[in-house]
Amino acid sequence: MAKATREKRDKQFGKWFRQMLIDAEILDYRYPIKGCGVWMPYGYKIRRLVTQLLRQLHDGTGHDEVQFPVMVTETNLRKEAEHIRDFENEVFWITHGGLKALEIKFALRPTSETAMYPMLRLWIRSHSDLPKKLYQIGSVFRCETKTTRPIIRVREVTTFKEAHTCHATFEESEAQILEATQIYKGFFDACGVPYVISRRPEWDKFPGAFYSLSFDVIMPDGRTLQSGTVHNLGQNFSRAFDIQYETLGGDHEYIWQTCYGISERAIGALISVHGDDNGIVLMPDLAPIQIVIIPIPSKENPQTILDTCREVADELRSEGFRISIDRREDLTPGAKFYYWELRGVPVRLEIGPKDVSRRQVIIVRRDTFQKEACKIADLPKGMRRLMNDMSDALRDKARKWMESRVHRVATLDEAAKLLKCRAGIVELPWCGDAKCGHIIEERVNAKLLGTQAGSEERTHGGCAICEKKARGLVRAAVAY
Ligand code: ZN
């Protein structure tokens, strides 16, 4: 019987991750352009469930889905000075149409502010046009100069959900930041992926933003993955793109904006956080196949076994479960177990001759490999309960694991020691000064994820560097 060990995953995470993408047929990274991968049918189905969840969460909170072109004119890309300064080094340019050089180059969007905001200027006239909450799911492009990694650091991010909102006042934009944070919490909780939310330091916020919040996930190797970001843009972009609205009193004011994004990195986190040495483990709600039925062949009455498999499948399908029967004749049951374990299917049902006569099935759950018999009549109810139990167990296990990797320390030495062995996240008292922040980053050889919201009241004592009164806890980690 298989065991749910995680030794290989944790010790050689990079290798495990690349292997899983190929072996579980999620994404093929052998495409002949560096940093580009191909979603394979099974991976695409996972991606579709994830984007469906994102759509539900955004549609349900009054966001409207749109689709903008992937090309942005150079003029628009350069409008917000900080924005272009940060992205300039990684923009892909389209310079030619056929053999002729273009008069104005086009950029492949590195993110969509500069594509969307000239249009918002046309769409927003008066206070009655506000608030406006739009989102899209599509590709963005970055000419990554660092080492690329499938899903985690790519040149074409194929699954970028970005939302952009417009408001009449700063207070409304702040309320939107809260809503966005709630949406993202709901999303990551549904994925069972635990996170910490940090306010990024000034020098690491989104280019052009007033401030940035980030959802960071600790990966099995102890490095963090920025998996979602929420930005209050203030009026920086509305001033650059001249987006004004007429107030009730007839004045003209610049709008207040927010934007927030989640990419396929969330799928990378989902796969990594729950996986084990036997393969990936999918949250039942996000599994393309939730239950796989394996007939255990018998020479005497193979047809009765198949009939029972079909009967069980029909019954469960009519209850809304996503089901497959593995009827391949060239594979042994053992080979099939291995095949579906690798692909993270939450539940396996085995049906053999004894089970047929007893009107039962053998249930094996993917996360613990626990085995039990269940009467066919009790299956629909039992499956629903099992899916819920498994979702809770996966979420809980991941959260406990993460909590054990967040370390509160008082000194730089302790922080450096922990980060050197990739122990996760360290939290240090910090005065909030950029100078001290940079010293921390240098001395612990890691990145400041930012401050923990609300940690101000709970922090006593002095900054780990200057010993002045700490203004909160700052988190540091070795980040992807
Ligand atoms: Zn300090």
Please give a structural write-up:
With 480 residues, the protein is α+β, with helices and mostly antiparallel strands. The protein folds into 3 domains: 272 residues, BirA Bifunctional Protein, domain 2, CATH 3.30.930.10; 96 residues, 3-Layer(aba) Sandwich (Rossmann fold), CATH 3.40.50.800; 72 residues, Translation Initiation Factor IF3 (2-Layer Sandwich), CATH 3.30.110.30. Helix content is 36%, strand content 26%. The strands form 5 sheets. It has an 11-stranded mixed sheet. Helix 3 packs antiparallel against helix 7. It is globular, with a radius of gyration of 25 Å. Zinc ion binds next to loops.
Task: Summarize this structure as a short list of keywords or feature phrases.
single chain; 480 residues; alpha+beta; BirA Bifunctional Protein, domain 2; Rossmann fold; Translation Initiation Factor IF3; five-stranded mixed beta sheet; 15 helices; globular; binds zinc ion
State the total count of DSSP E strands: 23
Name the strands of the widest sheet in spatial order. Answer: 3-7-8-14-11-10-9-22-23-21-20
Strand content: 25-35%
Ligands bound here? zinc ion
CATH topology of the largest domain: BirA Bifunctional Protein, domain 2
- CATH architecture descriptor name of the largest domain: 2-Layer Sandwich
Mean pLDDT rating: 95
Structural class: alpha+beta
How many structural domains? Answer: 3
Rounded to the nearest angstrom, the radius of gyration is: 25 Å
- CATH class annotation of the largest domain: Alpha Beta
Low-confidence stretches: none
Within CATH, the superfamily of the largest domain carries the name Bira Bifunctional Protein, Domain 2
Q: In percent, how helical is the residue content? A: 25-40%
Describe the largest sheet: 11 strands, mixed
